Every structure is written in structure tokens, then in C-alpha cells.
């Protein structure tokens, strides 16, 4: 595959992909599996128009022309809830031979073993049944069990989301793969069974007659009370379309078969989990045509009875009431209600009514008692008991004798409520405070919450922070006051994770306030893991609020709808709850908005209104990786996978790379030998490597059009291969996805390179070293380390210190450089190079080195400019350490030469932006050409010679060439030394 990708990158992608477009396997291979399907509807011939009609000829999704309802008689027997209720018709179980075999393994997981797939999916459309008689009859009485919660939970498949929007899919390799061709890119790795090609990796097979049948429009809620499970590929509808159709007609769709399932909707049976469960439970199978008939028949019946206008069946059929009355009746939220209209004059009442009706519903239906809050009841209780015991814990405990209760050391003075927006955190805090008689003072993000002034006496009338400080500290005075007369106060700090630049020091100040506070503080945030709150969490009792379930939300929304006289379907409300992602505030707002233009709200209306909002969910890279790797990762549609992987195209691949090895693929079953898993991991690793190659193309050559391909290779394929259960590989490891280690390692590498560069420049400056940085790293570092540490370990203290300092001076090695040498020589699993050196020796070394500083000259970051060049290139000259006395008392009469060398060393020991050596050679060549180089010196002690004109350079500058001829004229050694000192 890697080769394929490379090839693909090198030449233009063959968009036509004509080869792939041809079906590779024309004939079905497993016709013997099909008889059950054939048996199912033997009496109805396949209709020509269904089989051969032009694409989208009659689809509701594309055109509106309708077919006549057919099979009226059969329709009479439909086991809908309405039927059951009205006609009290007994329902019969379907004959066993009519049971379809359905494979749902494909639905459940798109990465099942290939062989199985091969057998299962190569079905030609002609083998499928197209008649309308395939529906079966419910075996059990159909009840609208609203508490079908487990099923509903199961239904949380990604399939239920909005329209498919798969426009881009019909592309070359994808469609080819789907039809059994082997797309080039797939390299035989695709899913077998005609789905090959990684471009459509993980997608379900297309319905063979997609869009070719008319989708019937039935009586509203004709499927109410019926629960369906969809399995396999349907004949003309995509799964999502089928799901929509059912929901639109009041039916439920769940993810797995249970006792409450009325039908298993499928057009082919390849004996998957769902179908065997259905057989086990005796759940009837229903074909797509059967479903259509069911819907059509309801329509016909409704028309016959003149019920066509009876739209919403399962809505609250309450007559429209005045909001107050309705609210009073349906919502059990009367605790502490002060705005009761009873007893007021009619005028006043009217005013209040107007005022009340103009209120946003979020305010109007704000919970009035803690029990009205949906979800998180245990957390609300915890908050209640924390607040209730606060005074006892933190105030009364100090008053000896008054309270016998010991102050619990683990008790926190503040509480931090965290959770996504609109789930009732603020409401809970306020209600609990109110319930316990606390006066709540709320400070939120719109108030500036910066650091308080040091003197809080300035506070009143000053900044908020000052007021808060005043508030929390002034309570101290009130400790001895009569509490019954003075209301207790609680400070609610909302959106503490929103304290930003404007609230400088805000969190630190908040912590200080908590420490000194004499009143309870409730902090509220959305993201408890925010970096800003890292220290705050240590001072707070942490209560993490979860989103209410969609059933809980729907129930509450239904109460509100009833109170407002709005007719709305429960399914529609569940859809709304799901679309708003658990945000009750948004759900109420949306409902109110819709109520402005309609009094009957249907499932479709909700879908239409919130079509795009589900996509706006802001997910973290961790969530994206969790979803991709999760058990349901195989069920995700391709566009969902792309969305997830592109949610953070930098971090998601890193997280995938970091964690893929920890996943045990759900598709491999038991795999005792571990071979399958290994092979999956190998394929994932290969794909990640491909992703890297593509990523280089994207970054280096700005080939942004490859972004999706990059995501595919580095995220989608590895996740599709390995999604399943995460397990730990090492003891003590936490079973959570780790953050990508690459970032940290890359930054360490950058830091180490910088340090190495410094060391290198210093060594070059000593002119005792001429090699490049790489050689220094590979060959000299160990020797340097030995020279710097061995004496300290082996020799007596003084001798060792003297020797090492001498060595450091000789090679211009600073203390920092010593640390660099030690740091770069550390390796995991090896002993620390500084081990075994007594700390007294280390201290003596530091002292001795520092003493030498008095005599040592440090030249730092000097600039040079080339005369004759208008805009002289300025380059930094390395800081060098130069023991001045050594230089003066240089041995063997080489002092002069040495000094001259040192003078020119300014020019030689340059550290360019990247490589000192490059600069060095540049300067050498300049010097050899006789160009004079002027050096500006910085950091001089007696800087009367800031600019020291330099003589011509010599031919060479390295120590090897030291004795070589000097090109200098009159400057003597003493002058050089003086010049050096001045520097
Ligand atoms: N759990 C809930 N039960 C009932 N109503 C709720 C719940 N959560 C939110 N609401 C409704 O949404 C409105 C806003 O809720 P609230 O301000 O408490 O949310 P929040 O979690 O504090 O949000 P944020 O983090 O944005 O401050 C409430 O007035 C109420 O009408």
C-alpha cells in the first residue's frame, strides 16, 4: 500500500478509474444462501418498474410522483399500534419459513473478517425480493412502551444523524470497490465482498436499487408504538433514510434486537447477530417493501376514515391553555414560587401574564426546586450536603465548645461544578443555595475578575475582585453575629475557566480567596481539565455534571410543550434532545423558536431546524480518537470518520499513533495466537507510515489537497483496523489514551540541539576543536564526559577540581556546557553520569570555577560588519570563555601568536544562525582574501574600545595552524592583551 500511495503521489490520481468501475465478479457466489429470501415472498413477482426503472424515478427523496397504494387487503392486517388499539385485531406470528436471514455483523462492524464478507455480500440485486408482501406480522401485542430505554440506548448509532450528504462518494475507486471491483489503491486490502478500496473504507454497501422506489407517505404516526431494528443493506433506501422514514411515522429505531423489538427490517439475511437474536426471540422480519406497504396502508385507512388531517398522534392532546395555568398543571415546579398570580387584581394578573409570556422559556421553566433538575440528582444532593455542612465545618469548628464536630481535613472550602453548557450547573447551585437559605452572589465572565488590590480596603466601589475579597473576608467579622438575622451568603463564581487575559491572576486570586473565605464558594466551569484550573481543583470538591439523557430531556420538554399548548411528538423531542447534544438551554430555546411559527411540531421539523447544528459540536482530539477507536468505531460513516480525524488534523494523528498499539481489535474475535492482532497492528503501522509520507507532502510542498488522504492513512485506516477495547500493555499504565509523545520529544530534541550548538561553538572558540557538531555528538561527547567527571570521582577533591577546571578553561567549556554534556549523555536505563560524585566535590568545583571568573573573560554575542558592504551582515559571535591570564602567560613563546589568534578568534568563532563552522569558514575565506573584518563588541567592561579594528586575517584559524604565519603588522602582544582585557 505504501508503494501505491507513493505512486499515487507521484502521478496524477486517475480520477476515471475505469478499471475499478467494472464489477470484478459478475455473478453472485453464494446463491445457495438465498433461498430463504426467495421463499419469503414467492407469491409476488418482481415488479418490472422496481427492477429496471430509471434511477430516482420515484424516490420521495428526489421526486414527488407517487404510486398508487397497493395490496389493500394486506394492509388491513397491519399490526400497528393503531390497529391493535382500534381494531383489536389479533396478530399472528409470521410463518417460520418467511424468516429472512440477515447479516448484521456488517452493520455492527465494518471490519469483520474478509472471508465471511466475501460470501455474504456478493449478492446481485436480482436475487432480492422486491415485492410488497414480504412483511411479517408481529408476534406479540404491540405496545407503545415509552420506557423502551435499553433499546433506545442501543439506538444511539451514528446512523440516525442527518442527511447523508455523501455527494463526494460516487468517486472512482470508491464506487468501484463497492461493486466488487478491486480499486488500485486498495491493494487487495479492502473489505472483500466487493467493497474494496480504502477510499470507501468502512462504508456500508449501497442499496442495489437506491432511490428507485417511491417512498410512501403514510398517515402521521402510523408506526407509533412499533420498534424496528434495521439490519443489512436495504433494497432502495440507505439506512438513514429508512430510519428517518420510520421515525417520521412515529416508529422507533433501535440498534439491537430485544424483546421490545417488533420488526427486524432487512432485505437479505446473512446470519448476523441481529438476525439470530431475532430468530431466537421470534421477532418477525420485515422487508423494505413490507415497510412501505405498512405505511401506505395506514394512509389508505386514514383516508377512508377521514383521519387524514389528524396529524400528531402521540402528542400531548391538551387543549391550549394559558401558560400559567398549563405550567401550573403540568410542571411540578411549584416550590417557592413567588410569582403566583393568585390573589392579585385582574389588571395586575394581566400584566403579569404578558410579562410572563414574553419570558424566554429557559427562564420561565427554570427549575424551581432541586428535584426539578433533570439528571445529576446525586450530584445535586452532594452539593446540598456540602453547603449544609459548610458552616459547621469551617466556622463553627473554630468556636471551641460550640461544636463537637471535628473539622474534616479532607473537606473542601469550595466546590467546583463542571460540565458542558446548559445542563443545569448554575441552576443547581442557585437552587440549592436558595433551599438552604443562602443568599447567592453571582459573579460571571462578564464581570472582570482580575487580581484584587493588595489592600482590599480600596475594594468597595473598586474592582469586582476587590469586592469579592471584601465579601469573603468580611464574613470573618460576622462570625459572632446573630446568624438568624443576617442571611448567609454563598459566592457563585460562574465560568471560572473563562478567566482570561482580562482577569489576570484571577484564578490565583480566587484560590487565595478560597483559603481565607468565611463563606462557601461555588465555582462553575465547563472544562474541569482546563490548564487554568490546574491548581484550583486542589482546593475544591469536584462535582462533574453529566448531560441528561435524551429521554429525560424529552420528558421535560414534553412538559414544557404541554404547558405551552404545543403539539409535539415525543420522538421529535428526543431528536431535538440529541441534536442539541444534551444542552437543555438550547433545546428550550429551539423549541420556543419553533413554537413561534408552528403549533404542531413534527420529527421532520426538528430535523430541518437542527440539520446543521449537530455538526457544530466542538470535540477535543481525545474525544475524536475515543470515537474512532471505540467499539462503535466500525459503525461510523466515512464522512463522520473524516470529520473526526479532521477535527484537529495535527493532534488526532499523533494521538492515534501514540495509542493504536493499545487497542485489541473487536473484529478479530478470540485470536489466541495473537497473530491476527499482530497483522492488524502491522497494517496500521504501515498506514501510519503512509500518512507520514503524505504529511510531508502537505507540509513541505503545501499540497493541502492531500489533507483528507493524509487523515485517511494516518487516522481512519489505523482506527478502522484496530478499533475495539483499549488495554494496558505495561503494569501501572493508566487505561486512557496518552497524549502524543512526539510533541514532547520533538521539543526535547530542539532543546538538546540548541545546547549542543552552544557547546560546539564554545569548543570552536577555544580553537582546540575543529570538528562539526555531529562529530562532537557522536565521538567527543563521551570523552568530554569522562574528562569532566572521572577525576571528580577518582582523584582527591582539590586535585580533581583543579584538573577539571583546567580542562574546562582549556576548551572554553562553561558550567552550562558541563551540564549539557551530562544531560546529553543520559539514557534511559543507564546510570546518571554524575552518580558517585560526592556533592562536596561538586560544590568545590562550582566554587573553583566561579573564582576563575574573575580572571576569565567572557565575550558574548558580538557583531561583525564587513567594511565596504553597505548593509553589513551582522552575525553573532559566540560567547567564548577565555582565561586571560593563561593567554598572557602562554607558554613557549607562542604567546604572541596565541594572542593574535585570539584576536582573530572573534572573527573565527562565530556562531551563525545554524552552524558555527560555516561562519568560521566564511571568515577564513574573507581573511584569506585580505578583507578586513570589523568587530563590534558588546558587554565590555572598560569599553573605551568598543570597536576594535582588526588586522587582516590569517590564512587559517584552527589550532592546527596556530604557528603559521600571521598577517598582522604592528600590533604587539601587550596591545593584544590590553585589547582583550578591554573586551
Ligand atoms: N438539568 C436541567 N433540568 C431542567 N432544566 C434545565 C437543566 N439544565 C438546564 N436547564 C434549563 O436551561 C437553563 C440554563 O441552565 P443553567 O444556566 O443552569 O446551565 P449551566 O449548566 O449553568 O450552563 P452554563 O455552563 O452555560 O452556565 C435553565 O434556566 C433551565 O431552564
TrEMBL record:
Classification via SUPFAM superfamilies: BRCT domain, P-loop containing nucleoside triphosphate hydrolases, post-AAA+ oligomerization domain-like
Localisation: Nucleus
Region (Disordered): 1-219, 319-360, 882-983
Compositional bias ranges of the Gly residues kind: 187-199
Keywords, in A-Z order: ATP-binding, DNA replication, Nucleotide-binding, Nucleus
Domain of life: Eukaryota
Biased composition (Basic and acidic residues): 1-16, 31-42, 62-90, 202-216
Claim: Phosphoprotein is one of the keywords in the record: no
Sequence ranges of Low complexity compositional bias: 172-186
BRCT domain ranges (all copies): 218-297
Compositional bias per record (Acidic residues), positions renumbered to this chain: 883-912
Family affiliation: Belongs to the activator 1 large subunit family.
Protein name: Replication factor C subunit 1
Upper taxonomic lineage: Eukaryota, Viridiplantae, Streptophyta, Embryophyta, Tracheophyta
Amino acid at each position: 500500500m505504501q508503494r501505491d500511495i507513493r505512486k499515487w503521489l507521484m502521478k496524477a490520481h486517475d480520477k476515471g478509474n475505469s478499471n475499478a468501475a467494472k464489477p470484478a465478479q459478475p455473478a453472485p457466489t453464494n446463491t445457495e444462501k438465498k433461498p430463504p429470501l426467495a421463499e419469503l415472498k414467492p407469491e409476488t413477482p418482481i415488479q418490472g418498474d422496481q427492477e429496471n426503472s430509471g434511477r430516482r424515478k420515484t424516490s420521495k427523496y428526489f421526486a414527488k410522483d407517487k404510486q398508487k397504494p397497493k395490496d389493500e387487503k394486506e394492509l388491513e392486517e397491519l399490526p400497528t399500534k393503531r390497529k391493535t388499539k382500534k381494531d383489536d385485531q389479533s396478530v399472528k406470528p409470521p410463518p417460520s419459513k418467511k424468516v429472512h436471514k440477515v447479516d448484521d455483523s456488517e452493520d455492527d462492524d465494518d471490519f469483520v473478517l474478509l472471508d465471511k464478507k466475501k460470501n455474504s455480500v456478493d449478492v446481485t440485486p436480482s436475487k432480492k425480493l422486491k415485492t410488497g408482501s414480504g412483511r411479517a406480522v408481529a408476534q406479540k401485542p404491540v405496545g407503545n412502551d415509552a420506557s423502551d430505554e435499553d433499546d433506545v440506548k442501543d439506538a444511539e448509532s451514528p446512523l440516525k444523524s442527518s442527511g447523508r450528504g455523501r455527494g463526494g462518494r460516487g468517486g472512482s475507486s470508491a464506487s468501484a470497490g463497492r461493486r466488487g471491483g478491486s480499486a488500485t489503491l486498495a491493494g487487495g486490502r479492502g473489505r472483500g465482498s466487493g467493497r474494496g478500496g480504502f477510499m470507501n473504507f468502512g462504508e456500508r454497501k449501497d442499496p442495489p436499487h437506491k432511490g428507485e422506489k417511491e417512498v410512501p407517505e403514510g398517515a402521521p404516526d402510523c408506526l407509533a408504538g412499533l420498534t424496528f431494528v434495521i439490519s443489512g443493506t436495504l433494497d432502495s433506501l440507505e439506512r438513514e433514510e429508512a430510519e428517518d422514514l420510520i421515525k417520521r411515522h412515529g416508529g422507533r429505531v433501535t440498534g439491537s434486537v430485544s424483546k421490545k423489538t417488533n420488526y427486524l427490517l432487512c432485505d437479505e439475511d446473512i446470519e448476523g447477530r441481529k438476525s439470530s437474536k431475532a430468530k431466537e426471540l421470534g421477532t418477525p422480519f420485515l422487508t423494505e417493501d413490507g415497510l412501505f406497504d405498512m405505511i401506505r396502508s395506514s394512509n389508505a385507512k386514514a383516508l377512508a376514515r377521514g383521519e387524514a388531517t389528524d396529524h400528531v398522534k402521540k402528542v400531548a392532546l391538551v387543549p391550549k391553555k394559558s401558560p400559567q395555568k398549563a405550567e401550573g398543571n403540568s410542571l411540578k415546579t411549584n416550590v417557592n414560587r413567588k410569582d403566583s398570580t393568585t390573589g392579585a387584581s385582574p389588571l395586575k394578573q394581566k400584566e403579569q401574564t404578558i410579562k410572563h409570556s414574553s419570558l424566554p422559556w429557559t427562564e420561565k421553566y427554570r427549575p424551581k426546586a432541586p428535584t426539578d433538575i433533570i439528571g445529576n440528582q446525586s450530584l445535586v444532593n452532594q452539593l446540598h450536603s456540602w453547603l449544609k455542612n459548610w458552616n459547621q465545618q469551617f466556622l463553627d469548628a473554630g468556636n471551641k465548645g460550640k461544636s463537637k464536630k471535628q473539622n474534616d481535613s479532607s473537606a473542601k472550602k469550595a466546590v467546583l461544578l463542571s460540565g458542558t453548557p446548559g445542563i443545569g450547573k448554575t441552576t443547581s447551585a442557585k437552587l440549592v443555595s436558595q433551599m438552604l437559605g443562602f443568599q447567592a452572589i453571582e459573579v460571571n465572565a462578564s464581570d472582570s475578575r482580575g487580581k484584587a488590590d493588595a489592600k482590599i480596603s480600596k475594594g468597595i466601589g473598586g474592582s469586582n475582585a476587590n469586592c469579592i475579597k471584601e465579601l469573603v473576608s468580611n464574613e470573618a467579622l460576622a462570625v459572632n453575629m446573630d446568624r438568624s438575622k443576617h442571611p448567609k451568603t454563598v459566592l457563585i463564581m460562574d465560568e471560572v475557566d473563562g478567566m482570561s487575559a482580562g482577569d489576570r491572576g484571577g484564578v490565583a486570586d480566587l484560590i487565595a480567596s478560597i483559603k481565607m473565605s468565611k463563606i462557601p464558594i461555588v465555582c462553575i466551569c465547563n472544562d474541569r481539565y482546563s490548564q487554568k484550573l490546574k491548581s484550583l481543583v486542589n482546593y475544591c470538591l469536584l462535582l462533574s455534571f453529566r448531560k441528561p439523557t435524551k429521554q429525560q430531556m424529552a420528558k421535560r420538554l414534553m412538559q414544557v410543550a404541554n404547558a405551552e399548548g404545543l403539539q409535539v411528538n415525543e420522538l421529535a423531542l428526543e431528536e431535538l434532545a440529541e441534536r442539541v447534544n444534551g444542552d437543555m438551554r438550547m433545546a428550550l430555546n429551539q423549541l420556543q423558536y419553533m413554537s413561534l411559527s408552528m403549533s404542531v411540531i413534527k420529527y421532520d421539523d426538528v430535523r430541518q431546524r437542527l440539520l446543521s447544528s449537530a455538526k457544530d459540536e466542538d470535540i477535543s482530539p481525545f474525544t475524536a480518537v475515543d470515537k474512532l477507536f471505540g467499539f462503535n468505531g466500525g459503525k461510523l460513516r466515512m464522512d463522520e470518520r473524516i470529520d473526526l480525524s479532521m477535527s484537529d488534523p495535527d493532534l488526532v494523528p499523533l494521538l492515534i499513533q501514540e495509542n493504536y498499539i493499545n487497542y485489541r481489535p473487536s473484529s478479530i474475535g478470540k485470536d489466541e495466537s495473537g497473530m491476527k492482532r499482530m497483522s492488524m497492528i502491522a497494517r496500521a503501522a504501515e498506514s501510519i507510515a503512509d500518512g507520514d509520507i503524505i504529511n510531508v507532502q502537505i507540509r513541505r510542498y503545501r499540497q493541502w489537497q492531500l489533507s483528507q488522504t493524509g487523515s485517511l492513512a494516518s487516522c481512519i485506516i489505523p482506527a478502522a483496523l484496530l478499533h475495539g477495547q483499549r488495554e494496558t500493555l505495561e503494569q501501572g499504565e493508566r487505561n486512557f489514551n496518552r497524549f502524543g509523545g512526539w510533541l514532547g520529544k520533538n521539543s526535547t530534541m530542539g532543546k538538546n540541539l540548541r545546547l549542543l550548538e552552544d557547546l560546539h561553538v564554545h569548543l570552536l572558540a577555544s580553537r582546540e576543536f575543529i570538528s562539526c557538531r555531529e562529530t562532537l555528538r557522536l565521538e567527543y561527547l563521551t570523552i568530554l564526559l569522562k574528562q569532566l567527571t572521572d577525576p571528580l570521582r577518582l582523584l582527591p577533591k582539590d586535585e580533581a577540581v583543579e584538573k577539571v577546571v583546567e580542562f574546562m578553561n582549556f576548551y572554553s567549556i562553561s558550567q552550562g556546557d558541563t551540564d549539557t554534556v551530562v544531560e546529553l549523555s543520559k539514557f534511559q536505563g543507564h546510570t546518571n553520569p554524575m552518580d558517585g560524585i560526592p556533592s562536596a566535590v561538586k560544590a568545590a568545583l562550582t566554587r573553583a570555577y566561579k573564582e576563575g571568573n574573575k580572571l576569565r573573560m567572557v565575550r558574548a554575542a558580538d557583531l561583525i560588519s564587513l567594511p565596504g558592504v553597505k548593509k553589513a551582515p551582522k552575525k553573532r559571535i559566540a560567547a567564548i570563555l577565555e582565561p586571560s591570564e593563561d593567554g598572557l602567560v602562554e607558554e613557549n613563546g607562542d604567546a604572541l601568536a596565541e594572542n593574535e589568534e585570539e584576536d582573530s578568534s572573534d572573527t573565527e568563532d562565530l556562531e551563525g544562525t545554524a552552524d558555527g563552522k560555516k561562519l568560521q569558514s566564511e571568515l577564513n575565506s574573507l581573511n584569506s582574501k585580505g578583507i578586513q573584518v570589523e568587530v563590534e563588541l558588546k558587554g565590555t567592561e572598560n569599553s573605551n574600545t568598543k570597536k576594535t579594528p582588526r588586522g587582516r586575517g590569517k590564512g587559517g584559524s584552527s589550532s592546527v595552524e596556530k604557528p603559521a604565519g600571521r598577517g598582522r603588522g604592528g600590533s604587539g602582544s601587550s596591545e593584544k592583551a590590553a585589547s582583550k582585557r578591554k573586551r
